[in-house]
Design brief:
This protein is α+β, with helices and mostly antiparallel strands. 20% of the residues lie in helices and 44% in strands.
Length: 187
């Protein structure tokens, strides 16, 4: 009974706050890529991606999903040669007071007691496998693009989706690598 009442109150507060929400402009920061064990890997994080509304939803017990999509292009071609994605999730346990962050690339859960640590880990990509070196051909130039998108949160009590991307000005942060060749990766 207490749990149901808590969910209803949380849903009401989230819905009311969405009417007066502030927006942020998330950006990729501290980005790098390199060859590791014959695989092109990418590391980076998203900054300026939280406001009080997003944080309130994160602390409500709802599962929040953040999808990183990465595409490899040949220089001069808008059509991707390869595309894949990585999903991160964060969920607060309102009873036991801890945060669980799951990342599909790691395949395991990380537990945090501190909200700030959980938030930092949620938006961090560490050595994300982009593609094996055998994919790239001599004499051709490539670049890759990584974008991040927050999924909507469905509130059962309100029978409504909350579009989290509106808090990000409806814009996905994007990282575009410099143009590189197979020779660049191997040197």
């Amino acid at each position: 009974m207490l749990g149901a009442l808590s969910k209803q109150i949380t849903s009401f507060v989230i819905a009311a706050s969405s009417l007066f929400s502030s927006h942020v402009t998330p950006l990729f920061d501290n980005c790098s890529y390199r060859l590791q064990d014959d695989v092109l890997v990418f590391s980076g994080r998203i900054i300026t991606c939280y406001n009080k509304d997003i944080e309130q939803i994160m602390q409500s017990g709802q599962q929040i999903l953040l999808e990183f999509t990465y595409r490899i292009h040949e220089q001069g071609n808008e059509t991707p040669l390869h595309m894949n994605s990585e999903t991160h999730s964060i969920k607060y346990d309102v009873v036991d007071k801890f945060y669980t962050v799951d990342k599909t690339e790691e395949g395991e859960s990380s537990i945090f007691l501190d909200f700030d640590e959980a938030k930092q880990h949620f938006v961090l990509l560490e050595l994300l496998d982009i593609q094996h070196i055998d994919f790239f051909e001599e004499g051709r130039e490539y670049y890759f693009v990584v974008t991040a998108t927050l999924h909507p949160v469905y509130l059962e009590e309100m029978e409504k989706n909350i579009e989290l991307m509106k808090y990000w000005n409806n814009k996905s942060p994007t990282y575009r690598s410099p143009v590189f060749s197979l020779q660049d990766l191997e040197s």
